[in-house]
Design goal:
Helices cover about 50% and strands about 15% of the residues. The protein is α/β, with parallel strands linked by helices. It has 2 domains: about 220 residues, Spore Coat Polysaccharide Biosynthesis Protein SpsA, Chain A (Alpha-Beta Complex), CATH 3.90.550; about 60 residues. Helix 2 links the parallel strand 2 and strand 3. Helix 5 packs parallel to helix 8, helix 7 runs parallel beside helix 8 and helix 9 runs antiparallel to helix 10. The longest helix has about 35 residues. The relative contact order is 0.12.
């Protein structure tokens, strides 16, 4: 089964020699893999190195800087195989694990390299927010998600292209695909992998990107699972209204406006959930019907 490996690259001059050597060795040892390197507007000398690279199984694409997600989406248009893989260019992921990830690949729409190994060197400052985002993602999708934003994974090409419209240009592309495919009950496999210290400086902005991840999951939850997002609020306002109503029943007066207001808010959110759910079903009905086996 042929697989195209996409590697988005932006200002990785410190790591580029090492990763290219590893990629070439990987490709030479496997007849079913080819590779697309995407230079996402690098300005540190990476682009000069890539321009001089020539290998019969490597295609180099250049584009204006648009972000991690935009690079993957751009390269996916050039994919001719039924499946394509992605990996970061910073040397953090074990390329050799693709062999295990490819086992029974035809049974899955996405295979994720899950950074849950005891050898994974994820800093504690990143583990804490990742833990809570993982819990939130699992709650919204009602699926166990070991790693919501791993940068090492394999996609069924046709499945990926169905959701291009919803995929962001930034780092949250992988999170978005995880939430979407989990929400639609697509077949996903998680394979435990190691995760190494990166070469060069990280492009992740811990505080800002953590907030963006939470916002992304919440927004997708509104699209696909509105009751998982608004359900607790509906229960809260309905419960508060019920308590005020019981108080009025027992005492005979008080909190009339607050009682009505809480019930109205609960009803408004409930109606909004039904409308949102109906719109989502109408929009994605065809996608759901065409879901790959």
């Amino acid at each position: 089964m042929n697989i195209t490996l996409i590697i988005p690259i932006y200002n990785e001059v410190q790591a580029i020699n090492s990763i290219i050597d590893r990629v070439i060795k990987f490709l030479n040892d496997r007849s079913n893999f080819d590779c697309i390197l995407v230079n996402d507007g690098s300005i540190d000398g990476t682009e000069k190195f890539l321009s001089k690279l020539h290998h019969n199984k490597i295609q180099v694409l250049h584009k204006k800087n648009g972000g991690y997600g935009s690079a993957i989406k751009f390269a996916s248009k050039y994919v001719k195989s039924n499946f394509f893989a992605i990996i970061d260019a910073d040397g953090t992921y074990p390329l050799e694990k693709f062999d295990e990830m490819c086992l029974n690949l035809e049974n899955y729409n996405m295979v994720v390299g899950s950074r849950t190994s005891s050898n994974s060197s994820i800093p504690i400052i990143k583990k804490i927010p990742k833990f809570f985002i993982k819990l939130f993602s699992s709650y919204v999708t009602m699926k166990e998600i070991p790693d919501f934003n791993s940068g090492m994974r394999i996609f069924r090409t046709s499945t990926f292209r169905k959701f291009l419209y919803f995929l962001p240009d930034g780092f949250s592309l992988t999170t978005t695909m995880t939430i979407i495919l989990s929400s639609f009950n697509y077949n996903i496999k998680y394979v435990e992998i190691d995760y190494f210290d990166r070469v060069g400086d990280s492009k992740i902005r811990p505080f800002k990107d953590t907030i963006n991840f939470f916002v992304t999951v919440a927004k997708l939850g509104i699209y696909f699972k509105p009751f998982r997002i608004y359900g607790p609020l509906i229960i809260f306002f309905f419960g508060v209204g019920a308590l005020f109503l019981i108080y009025r029943f027992l005492v005979g007066e008080g909190f009339l406006v607050l009682t009505i207001l809480n019930f109205m808010i609960a009803m408004f959110l409930l109606v909004f959930c039904f409308i949102s759910s109906s719109i989502s079903q109408l929009i994605f009905m065809q996608i759901d019907k065409d879901k790959d086996d």
